[in-house]
Design a protein that fits this description.
heterotetramer; A alpha+beta; B mainly alpha; C alpha+beta; D alpha/beta; B: 1% strand; D: alpha/beta; Rossmann fold; eight-stranded mixed β-sheet; 14 helices; MetI-like (chain A); MetI-like_sf (chain A); transmembrane helix (chain A)
Chain lengths: 378, 329, 640, 348
């Protein structure tokens, strides 16, 4: 009774949330999730690498060298003590002592501490096009003396620079994840959205389909589809085909999320109000509903990316999906997945490390987003 | 309740029909048929077959017929419990796969259990001590499992067990036990081999469980009934385990359903790396050799299992959650 | 052990010589009492098994070996998945009427103790070894040969081999239990090589006594029984029980009588974790002292889809002899380091393939411009000179092998240095001269040469990396090297089925394969002339000469026709010397025409041999037709 | 109204000068309760009245130490003296300590506003009550269940034996609250804290529940801390009333005294905002309090009510008014009461 009347103004106190404040609020909640914050930066860094691949990679990913097959990592040194005890400063890499073992059929490498090849930043290189567009002729770093080996992370079986391949692989693998998610996001929002908004038979039909797709073990699905796609397609075509295949499964999860939010929002007062005001469906959806769960969608999408990346590697492992000479983390791991590598060239597992890190980060990032999106952490 | 189960059951039958169709479609997708890839592999060996032989076989296998006809024969056959013949093995498909499907189930079942055993404590801890160092470590641990590509993990474990214990852990049994009957020593031998694949599979799925459990629990912990429980004077751990955790588990039960497909896929890869006698390697091989009835049957059965798994988990959920059982919401 | 390279004898085969050898073998049969494996003694005493003297033929095959061995032990190896019947063919099943000698130079008697051929190679007379028994004790006679021929030639039964070769099928004439004749409408000079190769298994793979019960001709209700057993018709049931040759399914039937040194114990099924064999008490070979072979009691083949598992097994000393599957270039250092721990050493395996990679341009391309270009010798020479083979050898094969064209290997009597080495030196200028001579003078913006129709000269090379990973590596390097002279190579890594489907449909520029026929020059001259469907570079020309798809046949150019005629003469001759001469003429044309481009001599591979395994030759050839290690008489191998 | 019972010298619960602060990672601490002094005696009902967010629930929960982790009792003592036992300072106990748990539910129990969400949906009513009983008194499950049934019967739930096996969502709101009460009484506590137990119920049920509570209080002779924002309820159930505003107890005393002669401007405003039954003609308009409650963050240094007080003058924003005795067990915090009488007249 009485005090209720007093309550009303209190209840009104927090004025209707404005988008900015919402975003700000989300950002604040997100920051609380320190791991997520860190992850965000790491992911960002990886994408930067993907973007600047040509600039960052010291060598051409295809450039092979007979003399340095399976050369171990040189590492990158910045200072060292000279024989006379004085200090040497400035980045450099050590040279190799190599000899061929004719019986074992391999080169044995010894890092030669005495030989130092200086490494410089922003070195001249033969002209290339950054991201295939901007013409450039300078690399982030490289050796200054000609014809000296630079294998910071070591070399593969053809003496190709692992670091450079890794950097270029990043572009493919990360973009495939992104592209796949974008695609599934599109399907997910459209299909899930309508299902959720209209409900009824359409909804249940869609949900059956989703259920159905999710009940299929994905691997055979991929295998079949991947095997089915014309093998005389170009690398690019395959690339897109793969993304489509991946998103064919990916959209269901997102559709479920979107639908769920729609269902719950549909009954919210402000939506009903808007309907009573005679606002068009489109307006209601775009103006009233979407803003209310973009955050969730973003979170869900973020959490979908790792799946895509893993899927890409899995497909490559099975010999489907991307194939050499395309350089992706999947194909790189394909080279690494044998006992020989584990035993004698473990550095070739570096792509695996990247996969792990990126996936970890994406997960934490996504979790953080979701926790921030709604404090109840659903 | 009964009516609820019935509804789900009908839905399931529908799904299964669809699955069978898609399964068959998938194996028909790749160019050529079993015989073309058969010839190809022979030729790769340096051997050649007389085309007439191939023609003969094509007749006998009825490969010439249009898609729908083949599908219908296959499907009706299955309804009568006849999964058809495997081209490569010249044997009834059922005879070939039941054993492997069994092992797949066994491994995946063990993986599910392992997952829960790992995920429960971590998830609860992560939720109760939200944003604590422990929370971070626990979740990181969980996610690393998710992040390591299965095949890589399996391979590394195999190699390490060779380097450290001088043992080559492949397959599911030591030579002596392969064809033996189940006995305690055989079970022990089995466990010694099975732990790697189970571990690999489990770690891959745990993170997801942890995440869900943590989220649900965070949700539940805020509910008034928790305060009520505290106001009763229950010790904190009991409060949490008896009420919010119990609640948080409900939605988790239903996750079993969609855990399965991922598990199945994962086990395919792991099995290939570790040469497990599960359905995985056979599926892979049959898909590459286009041994269509075999591949079709495996895909179908795996899907059926997942669908049934979903059904079971739904029923389980209904059973443990009175609100659903009494049709209230 | 004699080094293989020392043997450059002309291939000995056919009538006289072989008879002599057989005689020699006969004389060698020692009088002293024949021994048998201890594991059989009990059976003999209990009477379940007749004494060894009765089990052995009157004239057992004597196998000479480095040393007299001792009985016992299990030979462990690894099988690549359940479909790897090849391993069985190469270790257990290689028992034909005749066999190759260890140097792959001549043909020796085996189940047939002697033979003769008429001059024009249309009629062969064989004499079977008397008293040879199947693994179930039933005598092996011409009845079984007759049954096999009958079954192979039954169109309803889907078995195929040289026996029912459409173009020149076998006509059998049985003389008595141990003597029979093969007649051919066309001359068949290559018959003995064929029969000595793995193909020879076919004719002795079906025992009449057992297999005829599934054949309507001998059992009118065979069809009914087949259906009762759950098979749609008798053919499928018979196939399930007996199959033929070395078909996978044969080894899933433990009751099937065989002539192998070992009989199947744990059968090869789709779910088999391992396949095991135990000695065949009726095996018909003895060592120099008359002890019944084989020495080794059992075979144990681990079935694994996972190469990595097999690799680990070998490293862990759990494999006694193997070269198949695991002995890859990549693994070599691994196995080399593992010798100590694994208690094995690496033996030498000389591949029969002449070349690591053969680039076959499609001479019959649908696009007239490409067809004309690819058939242009200058173009091919240009390409060849643009390839820096030394570099490829260095990068991909760590210096193993030498620049080589597709030509007979140095070990082969047909080796011709000029043929092997022509156009192999790396010389871009020269390459460019030749390319321009071929009319590729203009280039586009990217420096790619333009064909007469103004299109850039881009060659799409189909390759199956799954088969030989190094192909991709080689091609990636060639890509860069050829780009330097303005030729663009596009890698097209595809799967097997498609690879083969592209041939008849003729939608490929070039296909890549290994250089088979480095040793088996006469048997498989696929790269020297349009020979078989595997002569991809001239697929449509081949069809005009008893190919499998006459409907798409095309008229070959004259030099090709000339080669085909010469080869028909080879078929028509039973004289090895004459055949060799004819082959040399064919190779001369090959040298002149330079149809396909090779990269480097296939480097020697290796085998993994446990240190306690004896009588294993240090070096052996490997090929499909020459099914290593079977010709090395594993029956004489033993554990110390 | 319950009959006046003689004052007991040692009060059952004495809340002295308690301050409760909430910490949050990215803001300054918020003092939700600035200074609370309350006294409860056995058999009596103290009503804690005020607008939502004034800190009354927080205070109540503080007594059972049920506050969230980020809340802390930064000052003052909560002295609890069960009859014939030593006094314990609840404020000093660890919230999950054994001694604290021994008090919860056993000596002090609590009923909540939303009976639906306050009961576990997946356990039967019976289980939830049995648990409580078995926790504090070593009874076998059977005996516990007997007690439960009789309790349910006591709180007027028809067919208690069957109802014990039902789930909360199968009961009506009223029955649920009765079950809640039954659970609270299970161990015959000395003090019952009722946090707006009737807010979620419709008027008739509300009345029933209130009657029930009064009746039970007589039977058990327990003290009751009753939290509400509804003056009507207060009038019906309270012996004493404490009025809270923005974390301060502004006025406290015998319910008659306070209702008859409210001395604090806020209390007065509250009273004026109660609709009184009168013929339409001579009704005068309700005068709601002007302005809105500021958030605890920008509570003035001095009297919390300053921002809305019609009489506010110099000292109000800066100086905190003292507790002033204004009658028999009737205190209030207002500068007007301590200033010269002329101004005091204004409030008289």
């Amino acid at each position: 009774m009485a005090v209720d009347s007093l309550d009303t103004p209190v209840k009104l106190a927090p004025a209707r949330p404005v988008r900015e404040s919402q975003v700000a609020l989300m950002w604040r909640r997100f920051k609380r999730h320190r791991l997520a914050l860190v992850s965000l930066w790491i992911v960002a860094a990886f994408y930067l690498v993907a973007l600047l691949a040509e600039f960052l990679a010291p060598a051409d990913p295809g450039a092979y060298s007979a003399r340095y097959t399976y050369a171990p990592p040189q590492g990158l040194h910045f200072f060292a003590r000279n024989e006379d005890g004085s200090w040497h400063f400035g980045p450099f890499v050590n040279g190799y002592k190599t000899e061929i073992d004719p019986v074992a059929l391999r080169r044995t490498f010894v890092i030669d501490e005495t030989v130092r090849h200086p490494v410089a930043f922003f070195v001249e290189s033969e002209p290339y096009r950054l991201a295939g567009i901007i013409p450039m002729s300078v690399k982030l770093f490289g050796v200054t003396e000609p014809r000296t080996p630079l294998y910071v992370l070591g070399a593969d079986r053809l003496g190709r620079d692992l670091l450079s391949r890794l950097i270029h692989g990043t572009r493919i693998s990360l973009s495939i994840g992104l592209a796949g998610v974008t695609l599934s996001l599109f399907f997910g929002i459209v299909i899930g959205g309508f299902a959720g908004y209209y409900g009824g038979w359409f909804d249940s039909a869609v949900m059956r389909v989703v259920e159905f797709i999710r009940s299929m073990p994905t691997i055979p699905l991929w295998l079949g589809l991947a095997a089915a796609m014309p093998r005389d397609w170009s690398a690019l075509q395959t690339y897109f085909a793969i993304t489509i295949i991946l998103s064919l499964i990916g959209w269901t999860e997102l559709a479920r999320v979107v639908r769920g939010r729609f269902l719950s929002l549909r009954t919210e007062d402000f939506v009903t109000a808007a309907q009573l005001d005679g606002a068009s469906t489109w307006r209601i959806v775009t103006r009233h509903m979407v803003p209310n769960f973009t955050s969730h969608i973003i979170a869900a999408a973020t959490l979908a990316v790792p799946g895509m990346i893993l899927a890409e590697t899995a497909l490559s492992f099975l010999g489907l999906g991307l194939q050499a000479p395309i350089v992706s983390w999947g194909t790189l791991l394909q080279d690494a997945q044998n006992i020989r590598t584990l035993a004698t060239a473990p550095w070739l597992l570096a792509p695996g490390l990247c996969v792990i890190v990126v996936i970890l980060c994406f997960n934490f990032f996504g979790d953080g987003l979701r926790d921030a999106a709604d404090p109840h952490g659903r | 309740m009964v009516q609820f189960i019935l509804r789900r059951f009908l839905a399931m039958l529908l799904t299964l029909f669809a699955v069978s169709f898609v399964a068959f479609a998938i194996i028909q997708l790749p160019p050529g048929d079993f015989l073309t890839s058969y010839m190809a592999s022979l030729a790769a060996q340096g051997d050649q077959v007389d085309p007439r032989v191939i023609e003969n076989l094509r007749q006998q296998y009825g490969l010439g017929e249009p898609y729908l006809v083949q599908y219908w024969k296959w499907f009706t056959g299955i309804l009568q419990g006849n999964f058809g013949q495997s081209f490569e093995w010249k044997r009834p498909v059922w005879e070939l796969i039941w054993g492997r499907i069994g092992y797949s189930l066994l491994i995946e079942g063990m993986a599910v259990i392992a997952m829960w055993l790992i995920a429960l404590p971590i998830g609860v801890y992560a939720a109760v001590r939200k944003y604590s160092l422990g929370d971070y470590l626990a979740t990181i641990g969980g996610f690393i499992g998710l992040a390591i590509p299965n095949f890589l993990f399996a391979l590394i474990l195999m190699y390490l067990s060779f380097v450290w214990f001088g043992r080559t852990i492949g397959g599911l049994f030591s030579p002596g036990f392969e064809n033996a009957h189940w006995s305690l020593p055989r079970i022990w031998d089995f466990l010694q081999h099975a732990w790697i694949p189970v571990l690999v599979l489990a770690t891959a799925g745990t993170a997801e469980l942890i995440r869900i459990l943590r989220a649900n629990l965070l949700d539940e912990l805020k509910k008034p009934y928790v305060t009520t429980a505290r106001s009763k004077g229950l010790p904190e751990w009991k409060v949490i385990l008896k009420y919010p955790v119990r609640m948080a588990l409900n939605p988790l039960v239903s996750t079993i359903g969609w855990l399965l497909p991922a598990l199945v896929s994962g086990s395919v890869i792991v099995s290939v790396v570790m040469n497990l006698p599960t359905a995985g390697p056979m599926l892979l091989r049959s898909l590459t050799t286009q041994d269509m009835y075999l591949a079709g049957a495996i895909i179908l059965l795996l899907s059926v299992l997942t669908v049934i798994g979903t059904l079971i988990s739904d029923i389980l959920l209904a059973w443990i959650d009175p609100r659903i059982r009494y049709g209230s919401r | 052990m004699h080094k293989l390279t020392l043997h450059r004898r002309a291939p000995v085969a056919g009538g006289l010589v072989a008879v002599l050898m057989a005689g020699a073998a006969f004389l060698a049969t020692p009088a002293l009492a024949q021994q048998q494996a201890p594991m059989l003694d009990a059976l003999v005493e209990s009477g379940d098994l007749p004494p060894v003297a009765e089990r052995l033929p009157t004239n057992p095959q004597v196998v000479e070996a480095e040393s007299i061995g001792q009985y016992g032990g299990t030979w462990r190896m690894g099988m690549r998945g359940g479909g790897d019947n090849g391993l069985i063919a190469k270790t257990v099943a290689y028992e034909g009427l005749v066999r190759y000698d260890r140097q792959w130079q001549g043909v020796l008697p085996n189940l047939a103790e002697s033979w003769e051929a008429n001059a024009d190679a249309t009629e062969y007379t064989f004499k079977l070894r008397e008293g040879v028994k199947w693994s179930d004790g039933t005598p092996f006679t011409t009845e079984d040969i007759a049954f096999a021929v009958e079954l192979y030639q039954d169109p309803e039964y889907a078995a195929g081999s040289w026996i029912d070769n459409v173009n020149n099928p076998v006509h059998l004439e049985v003389i008595d239990d141990y003597n029979f004749k093969f007649r051919f409408d066309e001359p068949n000079g290559m018959l003995l090589e064929t029969m000595a190769s793995v193909e020879g298994i076919h004719i002795v793979s079906l025992q009449k006594a057992y297999c005829s019960q599934f054949y309507p001709k001998y059992n009118e209700n065979a069809d009914a029984e087949a259906q009762a057993a759950g098979f749609t018709n008798w053919a499928l049931y018979l196939q399930d029980r007996c199959a033929w040759g070395w078909e996978t399914i044969r080894f899933s039937n433990p009751d099937l009588p065989v002539l192998y040194p070992w009989v199947i114990d744990q059968t090869l099924t789709a779910n088999a974790a391992r396949v095991t064999w135990k000695r065949n008490p009726y095996y018909w070979k003895v060592d120099a002292e008359g002890n019944q072979l084989p020495y080794i009691d059992n075979l144990d083949m681990r079935v694994s889809e996972s190469i990595e598992e097999l690799t680990l097994l070998a490293l862990n000393g759990e494999i006694d002899f193997q070269e198949r599957h695991i002995a890859t270039v990549v693994n070599r250092p691994l196995f080399f380091d593992g010798q100590e721990q694994g208690g094995y050493h690496l033996g030498e395996v000389v591949p029969s393939a002449s070349n690591t990679l053969v680039l076959q341009l499609n001479f019959n391309h649908d696009d007239p411009v490409k067809r004309e270009l690819y058939q242009n010798k200058d173009f091919r020479i240009g390409l060849s000179h643009a390839i820096d083979r030394e570099e490829i050898i260095d990068v991909v094969f760590t210096g193993q092998g030498e620049p080589f064209q597709v030509a007979p290997r140095p070990e082969s009597p047909f080796y011709d240095e000029e043929l092997a080495k022509q156009y192999t030196e790396f010389d871009p200028e020269l390459a460019i001269q030749h390319l321009e001579a071929a009319g590729l003078t203009e280039t586009n913006g990217d420096g790619i040469r333009l064909m007469s129709n103004g299109q850039p000269a881009r060659i799409t090379a189909d390759v199956i990396s799954a088969l030989r990973p190094e192909w991709i590596d080689i091609l990636e390097i060639m890509q860069l090297q050829l780009a330097a002279v303005g030729i663009e190579i596009e890698l097209n890594n595809i799967d097997r089925t498609l690879f083969y489907e592209k041939r008849p449909s003729n939608d490929f520029d070039a296909q890549v394969w290994a250089g088979d026929g480095g040793i088996e020059v006469v048997q498989d001259p696929r790269y020297y002339m349009p020979f078989s469907d595997e002569s991809v570079w001239a697929y449509r020309w081949v069809q005009s000469l008893n190919g499998t798809r006459p409907e798409i046949a095309e008229e070959p150019v004259d030099w090709a026709k000339q080669q085909m005629d010469l080869y028909n003469q080879i078929r028509a001759s039973s004289d090895p010397e004459q055949r060799a001469d004819l082959m040399r003429q064919i190779l001369a044309i090959t040298k002149e025409q330079f149809p396909v481009i090779g990269v480097s001599l296939m480097p020697n591979s290796y085998s993994i041999v446990r240190n306690n395994l004896r009588n294993v030759p240090e070096s052996m050839f490997n090929a499909w037709l020459f099914p290593t290690p079977a010709p090395m008489d594993p029956v004489t191998w033993y554990f110390e | 109204m319950t009959p006046q019972t003689p004052m007991v010298d040692k009060p059952l619960l004495k809340i002295e000068d308690v301050e409760i602060a909430f910490s949050s990672p990215d803001e300054a601490d918020i003092v939700a309760v600035r200074q609370v002094d309350l006294t409860l005696t056995a058999g009596k009902t103290l009503c804690l009245v005020g607008e939502s967010g004034c800190g009354k629930s927080v205070t109540a929960r503080a007594v059972l130490r049920l506050l969230d982790q980020n809340a802390s009792i930064s000052r003052g003592r909560i002295l609890f003296t069960p009859p014939g036992e030593e006094t314990v300072d609840i404020g000093a106990l660890k919230s999950d300590s054994l001694s604290m748990r021994a008090i919860r539910g056993n000596k002090i129990s609590m009923i909540f506003q939303e009976p639906m969400s306050s009961l576990s949906p997946v356990h039967t009513i019976g289980d939830q009550i049995d648990e409580m009983i078995m926790l504090h008194e070593d009874l076998k499950p059977k005996e516990a269940r007997e007690r439960t049934v009789s309790l349910l019967d006591q709180v007027g739930i028809p067919g208690p034996r069957e109802r014990a096996d039902t789930y909360p969502f199968q009961l009506s709101g009223g029955l649920r609250q009765r079950a809640m009460i039954a659970m609270a009484l299970a161990c015959t506590p000395n003090l019952l804290i009722a946090d707006e137990p009737t807010t979620a119920l419709d008027v008739t049920t509300q009345a029933q529940i209130l009657d029930l509570l009064k009746k039970l209080q007589d039977d058990y002779g327990m003290a009751m801390l009753f939290i509400t924002h509804d003056l009507g309820v207060v009038a019906e159930i309270a012996d004493e009333v404490a009025v809270m505003y923005l974390g301060d107890v502004v006025e406290q005393g015998d319910v008659f005294e306070v209702f008859r002669a409210p001395r604090h401007p806020y209390t007065q405003a509250l009273m004026r905002s109660i609709p009184t039954m009168a013929r339409k003609a001579d009704r005068q308009r309700l005068s709601p309090i002007k302005g809105t409650v500021p958030s605890a963050k920008d509570r003035p240094q001095g009297c919390a009510f300053t921002s809305r007080c019609p009489h506010a003058f110099e000292p109000c924003p800066t100086v905190r008014p003292e507790r002033t005795q204004v009658g028999e067990g009737h205190v209030a915090r207002c500068h007007l009461l301590t200033q010269d009488t002329t101004r005091a007249e204004e409030l008289a």
